[in-house]
Design a protein that fits this description.
Order of helices and strands: HEEHHHHH
Strand content: under 5%
Number of helices: 6
Number of strands: 2
Radius of gyration: 18 Å
Structural class: mainly alpha
Helix content: 55-70%
Strand order of the largest sheet: 1-2
Distance between the termini: 37 Å
Length: 170
């Protein structure tokens, strides 16, 4: 197995110019092997976890809502990046674990967009429910890890997908 590429390297590689002529310029989408997809998903999950670690440890002594909003922005960015990376793949071309991850990512994006800082009446974090975000991000990390893990049985993977995508709390 080769080197696992970083998120930024994959973004650069995902589209590449093809033969250019005066009358035709085009891009193709590169489709990567399952190992590369797996590495990209694992790296995205790791980056979201690291942003949550910063929220928890708060090394910059930021206000709680500011720190949480930053963590939310980072997590939403990685969720969108992973969904963008998976976009060229049809469900049939992905392993069941990777298909499940796409479903978890779509459900998490929906949750995060539903709990966005609105910034109304001079309050920059109005409408941002911090406890809800905390619960959502922990459930997401748990579900994503269990769905992606090769050690999770098909039955447990499907149960975790149903729980997370339907918003059922444990």
């Amino acid at each position: 197995m080769g080197e696992v590429l970083s998120q930024s390297m994959l973004s650069d590689l995902n589209t590449a110019p093809v033969a250019e002529s005066e009358d035709h310029k085009a891009n193709i989408t590169k489709v990567f092997s399952a190992d590369i997809v797996e590495g990209m998903l694992a790296e995205g999950l790791g980056e979201i976890k690291r942003s949550l670690d910063v929220l928890y440890h708060n090394p910059g002594n930021m206000e709680q809502h500011v720190n949480a909003a930053a963590c939310r922005s980072i997590a939403l960015g990685y969720v969108n990046d992973m969904l963008h990376f998976l976009q060229p793949y049809h469900d049939a071309s992905l392993r069941p674990r990777h298909r499940g991850c796409r479903k978890v990512l779509m459900a998490m994006r929906k949750r995060m967009l539903g709990n966005a800082p609105a910034g109304v009446d001079g309050k920059p974090f109005a409408g941002f429910d911090l406890p809800q975000f905390g619960g959502d991000i922990v459930q997401f990390l748990t579900a994503f890890h269990r769905v992606l893990s090769v050690e999770t049985s098909t039955t447990d993977r499907n149960a975790e997908l149903r729980r997370f995508c339907r918003g059922i709390k444990r």
